[in-house]
Amino acid sequence: MRDQRNGSEGFTLIELLVVVAIISILAGMLLPVLGNAKSQARRISCLNHLRQLTVAWQLYAHDESRLPETYAFESRGRVNSNAWVLGTMDDSPAYPPVQSDQLDSTNVTGIRRGSLFPYSEAVSIYRCPSDQSQREGVPRVRSYSANGWMGGKPLAGQDEYRVFNKMSEITAPSPAQAFVFIDEHVRSINDGWFAMDMVGDHGLIDAPGVRHSGGVTLSFADGHVDWWEMRDKRTRNWERLPISNRPTNPDWARLHQAASSLQDPRQGQ
Fold this sequence. Notes:
Layout lengths: L12 H52 L44 H4 L21 E2 L2 E2 L4 E4 L31 E5 L9 E2 L20 E6 L4 E5 L3 H4 L13 H10 L10
Parallel strand pairs: 3-5
Antiparallel strand pairs: 1-2, 3-4, 4-6, 6-7
C-alpha cells in the first residue's frame, strides 16, 4: 500500500535540537557521577595500599619484636639501613641518595632496600593512585610517610612524649587510635618520616595529602584504614610549612591525638 503521509519522513530541525539538548542534559548529569565514581575508586585503592603496607609493618614487628624504624637518615647524613623505606621524594642534596647516579624520587631501589619490602614485595602499594607528581617526566615512587613517633625519634624539645618501639608499647593512644602511615602532600613529602609536633607550637610541620575529596587517608596500628576530612582551610590550601596552629588547627588536634602521648599522663595537667 502506498504511503499516504504528507511532508518529509525525516526529523525536523526543531526535533533534532530537542534531541541534542536532551543528550547534553543527560551528559551533564552523568559526567559528575562518573567522575565521583572514579574518585571513589581511587580512594578505595589508596586505602587498600595503606592496608597492605600496615600488614607488612605488623609482620615485621612480630618477627623482629620491634617496630620498623622510621627515620632513614642518621647524624652527619648517614643512612639508616633499618628504616622502613629509604630515599627522599624531594631529592634534597642534604641527604645522600640511595644510588649516586639516580634521583631518589623516581628510584624504586629506595623501596626495595627498605625493611618492609620483604613482607610485601609490591612497589605499587607505596604510591597513591591519585598522586600525579613527577620528576623530569617520571612518576615519583612514593606518596606515603610513617608517623614519626612510631619507631622514630622525638622532635627536639619534645622528649616527654612517647616514641613507640614495640607493639606492646602502643597503649596511649590505643592500636585502634594510633596512626602508622599517612598520605602526605606532594609539596611536603621528603623522607619517610611524617614529623608530628606534639606540643603544638609548630603546628603541622609536614602536610597531610588532600587528594581525596579534601581529606587524607591513613592507617592504624590495629590494621584498619580510614579517611579523615581536613576541616581547616589552612590545611587544605597552605602555601608554606609549617601550617599555623594559632588558633588551634582542628586537623592538627586530631592527628596529635593519634600520634603519641605524654610518657606520664599526669604531666601537663
